[in-house]
Amino acid sequence: MIDKKISFVVVNYNYREDIQKLISSLSISCFRLPYEIVIVDNASTDGSKEYFSGLSENIIYRYMDKNIGYGAANNVGVALSSTDTIVLINPDTLIEDEGFDTFIAIVQNEKKIGVFAPKVVYPDMQIQPNCGAFSTLKTFIMQSLKIGYFVRKFGLVENLKGVVSYLPFLQKTFIGTYLDNFSDQVTCKECDWVSGACMIMRKEVFNEIKGFDENFFLYCEDEDLCRRISEHGYEIVIDTAFTIVHNEGFIKTRKSKALTPIAKYRYQSSIYYLEKHVGRVSAFLLRIFYVFQHLFNGMFYLLFDWNTAKTYFEFLPELLFPVERRQR
């Protein structure tokens, strides 16, 4: 049994209804835990301010005047928290399994663990990839080509497992670490990084590495955090014995093929991640790949829809000229 209070830190940007569901799920699954919920609102316009500012019981709410980004908002949330153990959790998640107190106890008792994470699934209970090896140029190119998405969509996971079983050297490549997400075995294992859908850690570890790098507005900030925690000698661990549900756009569908602001953040963060951790050459090559990819997409959609094509062309200057970053 845990006698230490924990803090759930949630970043909100127009996720009022999802957070209401998350709060309800916590009241049921974490009834044995003393906890507080810290909500940092990145200038939502969906009525979140009016709703959450009126709540007081175990909820700390901070409304920001502008969207400062996911990592920066988490830094604010951790600073507002009053406990030694923090759970960084996405607003569109649900904790439905019992036993979260046992899960938390592992982090509090095992000082060598820097980040602890559960298994993550979509609402239809399909596995959501939640851990892996540190990203490289090859990783980001594969992501941009949606290789992992097509592998899952067309049911090729088992086929790839068969290939890896015959070619064991692939186990330690990005292919093997990706397939580890789909293992049927209940395991507690060390990995390079876990996703920010749910990250459990001690506040002292978070503060030791000075929290999230706020140069990542969105995407890659979780892997960067894990990498720096690992460099400080801590382990990044995932335990598939406990499961949370993460919507991650599962219900929302988008008919438009236009390039979205969120997609732009992914590209920019990927380039910055390589520049920071791998090298400028890899970052430059990824930038060039993205330029040609967006040129191709723009030319393709030019045949059907100028407005969609324009979104790809307009992003080219941002890809060609690096964004100025704050020094860390």
From TrEMBL:
Ranges of residues in domain Glycosyltransferase 2-like: 7-123
Keyword field contains NAD: no
UniProt superkingdom: Bacteria
Keywords of this entry: Transferase
GO molecular function: transferase activity
PANTHER family: RHAMNOSYLTRANSFERASE WBBL
Protein name as it appears in the record: Glycosyltransferase family 2 protein
UniProt source species: Sulfurovum lithotrophicum
